[in-house]
Amino acid sequence: MVEPQSPTPSSRPQNHDPQSAGKGSGSKDERSAARFKRRGARYKARRRAVDILFEAEFRDIDPVDIMEERAELAKDQENQIKPIPEYTSQIVPGVASNLDAIDDAIAVHLTSDWTLDRIPAVDRAVMRVAAWELMFNADVPHRVALSEGIELASEYSHVKAPDYVNAVLDGVATDADAAMADRLAAQREQEQSGSESGTTTELAGIDALVDSVIADPAEQAADAATEGPEDSQAGPAESTAAENQDSV
């Protein structure tokens, strides 16, 4: 369990723009801007997803609605709205549709004093993006999701945020690995069980076929002994019936 070293509730960011959470320190903003310029398209897509998730929680609306609204506004250049990156359009619906599972995975690694609803909203948004990648996007290596989540926390939140975000996300990654291992073990067990069942059925069919072609000599002798008397009794009767028919 990790206790975030967070500012007091009154000092948490209240503006719906998460980038304002780091305002107040010009040098920090300049460093963040420089790092952002060096980042690739995926990082910028994650950053945009954090913006949307933060705003959605602040406004208490569906983040997918905000994303679709931004995409529509971006079609008109006069609105000066940047298009929604393709990866952002995967993250936001992914977080929205799996929000309960994501929040539960994050919450178990926080303390009872610092529950999910008490930590800064920008930290929630950052960890939700990273947790979605750890839990639901197998294409992203865990080390990448962790690194990008920590970097987003250092850019958006207070100076101590990266440490506890790192600890929480590391716990989420460990749990995700364990869950994946359990699923793979169950899948292998099911496949093995199905294979053994198929082999047993196949062997039973082969045994039946062999039995029908090669009969046991003892069984043949028993069958002959049983059928013999019946054949000997039927012979005279049939012969007599035939003679009577000829005489008529």
TrEMBL record:
<feature type="compositionally biased region" description="Polar residues">
    <location>
        <begin position="8"/>
        <end position="18"/>
    </location>
</feature>
<dbReference type="InterPro" id="IPR006027">
    <property type="entry name" value="NusB_RsmB_TIM44"/>
</dbReference>
<comment type="function">
    <text>Involved in transcription antitermination. Required for transcription of ribosomal RNA (rRNA) genes. Binds specifically to the boxA antiterminator sequence of the ribosomal RNA (rrn) operons.</text>
</comment>
<feature type="region of interest" description="Disordered">
    <location>
        <begin position="1"/>
        <end position="44"/>
    </location>
</feature>
<dbReference type="InterPro" id="IPR035926">
    <property type="entry name" value="NusB-like_sf"/>
</dbReference>
<keyword id="KW-0889">Transcription antitermination</keyword>
<feature type="domain" description="NusB/RsmB/TIM44">
    <location>
        <begin position="44"/>
        <end position="173"/>
    </location>
</feature>
<dbReference type="GO" id="GO:0031564">
    <property type="term" value="P:transcription antitermination"/>
</dbReference>
<feature type="compositionally biased region" description="Basic residues">
    <location>
        <begin position="34"/>
        <end position="44"/>
    </location>
</feature>
<dbReference type="GO" id="GO:0005829">
    <property type="term" value="C:cytosol"/>
</dbReference>
<keyword id="KW-0804">Transcription</keyword>
<keyword id="KW-0805">Transcription regulation</keyword>
<dbReference type="GO" id="GO:0006353">
    <property type="term" value="P:DNA-templated transcription termination"/>
</dbReference>
<feature type="compositionally biased region" description="Low complexity">
    <location>
        <begin position="216"/>
        <end position="225"/>
    </location>
</feature>
<feature type="region of interest" description="Disordered">
    <location>
        <begin position="216"/>
        <end position="248"/>
    </location>
</feature>
<dbReference type="Pfam" id="PF01029">
    <property type="entry name" value="NusB"/>
</dbReference>
<protein>
    <recommendedName>
        <fullName>Transcription antitermination protein NusB</fullName>
    </recommendedName>
</protein>
<keyword id="KW-0694">RNA-binding</keyword>
<comment type="similarity">
    <text>Belongs to the NusB family.</text>
</comment>
<dbReference type="InterPro" id="IPR011605">
    <property type="entry name" value="NusB_fam"/>
</dbReference>
<dbReference type="GO" id="GO:0003723">
    <property type="term" value="F:RNA binding"/>
</dbReference>
